[in-house]
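User: structure tokens for this one?
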Amino acid sequence: RISEDSLASFVRDECLTGPGHWCDVAALRHRYERHCTDMGTEPVSAKALTMRLIAEYGVEQGRLSRPSRRIYRGIGLLSPDGYHAPDADPSPSTAPAAAPPSTASPASPA
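Assistant:
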């Protein structure tokens, strides 16, 4: 089960998880394979990688149209070769939250 531990250590050491984080599938896969090489372990297959990210870390698959590329939502890389800031979630179905209504009432003339 060494290859399974390689994914856990990769996510722990080189990723951020949670809502708003996202990265290119290819960038994450490349970085994961490099991590495995550095550890001297065999990486899991691309399909197993995706299945485990979904099952164990709540990651979702997505697609950007321009330029066309596959992404993972819910995980981001710590390094600049694939990381996207939490504020830059590309999800077209996620609209920015509206500002809360003001609780201050307008001053009325006396």
